[in-house]
Write a structure and sequence with these properties.
Length: 202
């Protein structure tokens, strides 16, 4: 039995996480049942419970997986891009890329507000090193004259609030005629980069 579990663990577990991410993101954690997830994966509910003892544990695993992937993607962008605005552009692109590739992630961001405080803090700890790295980079580039002087943390807060606002205010955005489609997200990314370029180019 342990060997069988080991052999089939990765595909089955990953399929459950994928389905849960899409369903949690589109309908919310509370409105999604384990039966819904099992049907989407094409397995019995007991199979889902074999890997995750509760919906709460599954939700935590989904959030942690997304956070890990985002940390890797943004970290790679920060380290590999050239200096100056090119690195900012690479970082913003990396932030938007997962949502453009998988719009359900935007809905998942809304669910962060409903997490237990302990889990919220754990996720914040995952991304904090990236925030610190980005702020130090901005400060260094400003000191060397490659970027116009501004408050690095305020700039990061602006980018963060833009992305999270898109995810958490769908009703307000629909009221002004904006829908979070793939095309609209690409347009938003371009407009955000244009704003930052105009604000930061010396």
């Amino acid at each position: 039995m342990p060997e069988i579990r080991k052999k089939h663990a990765q595909p089955t577990r990953e399929r459950i996480l994928d389905a849960a991410l899409d369903l949690f993101g589109s309908g919310g954690v509370d409105a999604t049942s384990l039966d819904d997830i099992a049907r989407a994966v094409g397995v019995a509910k007991q199979t889902v419970l074999y890997w995750f003892v509760s919906k709460e544990e599954l939700a935590v695993a989904v959030m942690q997986r997304v956070a890990d992937e985002l940390v890797l993607e943004i970290g790679a962008a920060i380290r590999s891009a050239p200096h100056g605005f090119a690195r900012i552009e690479a970082t913003v692109t990396a932030v938007f890329r997962p949502a453009i590739r998988r719009p359900a992630l935007l809905g998942l961001i809304r669910e962060l507000n409903r997490l237990p405080p302990a889990l919220s803090e754990a996720l914040i700890e995952k991304v904090s090193p990236l925030i610190d790295m980005a702020a130090l980079y901005l400060e260094k580039e400003m000191n060397e004259g490659r970027l116009r002087r501004a408050d690095p943390h305020l700039l990061l807060a602006f980018v963060y609030s833009t992305v999270v606002g898109v995810a958490t205010e769908p009703v307000a955005l629909r009221a002004v005629g904006w829908q979070p489609t793939t095309v609209a997200l690409r347009t938003l990314r371009r407009e955000l980069l244009d704003f930052l370029r105009a604000a930061l180019t010396p």
